[in-house]
Amino acid sequence: MLQVVSEEQGTSASEATLTAHRPPERPKGPGGWRQVEALPVGLFASVMGLTGLSIAWTLAHTRYGVPLWPGKTIGLLACAAFVALAAGYAAKAAIAAPAVKAEFRHPIAGNLFGTPLISLLLLPIPLAPLSLPLARLLWIVGALGMTLFAWWVVTRWLSDRQQAAHATPAWIVPVVGLLDIPLALPVLGLPPMPAVMVFALAVGLFFAVPLFTLILSRLMFEAPLPAALQPALLILVAPFAVGFSAYVATTGTVDLFAEALFVVALFLLAVLLPKLARFGRSCPFRVSWWGVSFPLAAASVAALRIATAQPGPAIDILALGLLTLATAVIGWLLARTLVGLARGELRTLAQ
Fold first, then answer.
1. What is the pLDDT of residues 232-282, one digit of tens each?
2. How far apart are CA 44 and CA 85, in angstroms?
3. Is 74's pLDDT higher than 80?
4. Domains in the chain: ranges and CATH
5. What is the model's pLDDT at position 120?
6. 3-state SS string for 38-78
């Protein structure tokens, strides 16, 4: 790493660059419905995390015979969260359109507009048993929207010179989000779509490698991420954990390549979890902490899929451990967020 003086200068420069591109902050105000003016689009990551946890509990029911109601209940909670967030962000667009426009143009936060689209790709999985037509409609909208958004983001990247300070884990969301397209297809009862599944898998994995390299290089050779972005580090696990599930959904088998994807995800999780645990004790809660939810749920889902395909004591212990961890973390995030909303703290939690 750099020397102390250089690191401090680098940190100042990095934070100055990020601050220059942040949407204009509004003065703090009272709680109530006006809180939606501060609603960040990245909070849709909560829907992704809850949906992933619902899928994990459903897989645990298949593998271990645990009750089915936790998976169904969490799935319904994810649907309710999506409806509430969609209504809230629509209200924000109506009363604070400049803030929405600034967030969309932000070189980091703008990538998180992929989170509602990914939510549309994941929600059909718990919704399919309840309303297959609605699940199919959401998936079609999500698949088209995710593809167009990924195309637009890559076009923007290649059209303008990018800054190294902006290479954060949020960059993974727009393009690697394509990996979520194949996940719901097995439960939707649609005609076979091998070309769509291969397209999503190939583009998602192809871009995961250079993006991961760019972000890792920025983390290693530049100033540390600002405090508000530190929880997003766990997003680095998602391309490999979700890539595993997308690969299995596309090929229908857990082969050596699938196992390799899972092992990489597991290794990154082992590297990042202690770092985030230390950070959690020294940093106040922000809604950006929801960035850890979906990667944890995706890792749990991947472990449960392997445990189902290749049962054994070691993988069973690992799968149950990851399920317990994901449930505890997401449960805490949900409780803390709801308490903050009830107290009118959204403006503070969204900083």
1. 889 999 999 999 999 999 999 999 999 999 999 999 999 998 877 776 666
2. 7
3. yes
4. 38-349 (1.50.10.150)
5. 97
6. HCCHHHHHHHHHHHHHHHHHHHHHHHHCCCCHHHHHHHHHH
Among 129-133, 288-292, 343-347, the least confident range: 343-347
Residue 85 vs residues 46, 89, 91, 128, 168: alpha-carbon distances, Å: 10, 6, 10, 21, 24
Radius of gyration of the chain (CA): 20
Position 5 scores a pLDDT of 36
**In the predicted model, is pLDDT for residue 43 greater than 90?**
yes
Does the global pTM surpass 0.90? no
Q: Are 285 and 345 in contact (CB under 8 A)?
A: no
C-alpha 146/C-alpha 117 separation (Å) is: 6
Rounded to whole angstroms, how far apart are CA atoms 125 and 128? Answer: 6
Residue type at 60 in one-letter notation: A
Phi, psi of 68 (to 5 degrees): -85, -20
How far apart CA 132 and CA 129 sit, in angstroms, is 6
CA 208-49-110 angle, to 5 degrees, is: 55
| Cα–Cα dist 152/46, whole Å | 24
Instruction: Please give the Cα distance from 232 to 131 (Å, whole number).
Output: 33
User: 47-51, 206-210, 229-233: which has the highest mean pLDDT?
Assistant: 47-51
Alpha carbon distances (Å) from 287 to 145, 169, 201: 24, 16, 29
Query: Are 142 and 115 within 8 A, CB to CB?
Result: no
What are the structure tokens assigned to 98, written together? 């400049």
